[in-house]
Design a protein that fits this description.
The complex is a heterodimer.
Chain A: H1 2-20, H2 23-59, H3 63-78, H4 86-100, H5 104-121, H6 130-140, H7 148-156, H8 166-183
Chain B: H1 2-25, H2 30-64, H3 67-81, H4 89-94, H5 99-113, H6 118-129, H7 133-142, H8 152-174
Amino acid sequence: MLNIVWPIFIIISFSYAIFSGNLEKLNSSIFESTNEAIKLSISLLGTICLWNGIMQIANNTSIVTKLTKFLNPIIKFLFPDLKDNFKIQKEISMNIIANILGLGNAATPLGLKAMKSLQTENKSKSTLSNSMMMLIVLNTASIQLIPTTVIAIRNSLGSENPTSILFPVWVATIVAAVARNYSN
Amino acid sequence: MQFINFISNLAMPMIILIIVFYGLTEKNKVFDSFLDGAKEGIEITLSILPTLVGLFVAIGALKDSGVLDIITYAMKPILDLINFPSELMPLAILRPISGSGSIAIATNIMKNCGVDSLIGNIASTIMGSTETTLYTIAVYTSCIKIKKTRFILIAALIADLVGILTSVAIWQIIS
């Protein structure tokens, strides 16, 4: 997918910059972007290590087993191919729980772990399986109760009611999530 | 607001506290488990880094070369037809492809149009109800070296579009 999207982005924007005389801006933008990517990776490194460590502790206790049992009917419905593979079901439900709680930084490493386990079950190693697609779709759906980042931004801009967007956000999330399941 | 602030500040420490406490009561070697997990975290981050560099350069170029402005201008007639405020177009384009970029643009829109204005509210709702789709797909597929992604990109982008249009529609109904 990125083999197509990425070169299109590069070709269009680089050739446009040459013809419109935006070259100086483009040059500084290239270096800024690489710096930004490294900065993000470094800040990710800390949080991913921390959450991976914390979740590894949780993994060795019975807490996840309890939460997984709670989520099990939903997981079985969304991932019919998994049958009774308890290890993967556990990893997926941990990912979903982190998403709902708005712990984006924790959700990603958990989701990637689940992807790795799904890959061992995958029949064709270079193609996404149905379960993998469902997991990715769930993670692009932004299923969080409280969108903390937006509320923080609104608060910092002096909004009279920063949380007034909560209800519309829930509606839009649900409608988009339903659309995801249908287009999948 | 204070209560929600309290809840969101409480969430992270509470979860860590409960997990560590649980580990101790079940007599696990808590710090050894932590180190095992954290080591794995380094591998995960390193496998994401090249993807991030490549994507950031492409997105930065798209924004700073002026291509994004052109697209917004070209689509204005269609946007007017479905009652979509053209101020939101850069956000709608950037939202699926860049997390930090869309936060910057959304903040900019809220500042310029007023944070409690209709457009400010819609921008907030778009940010809250959608994700950085392209990044998510890239990270999830590159960590296990998947080449054939089937129709996942189109499915996710359609859902993003639905989410964005719903955000606009619901605010037009409410206000």
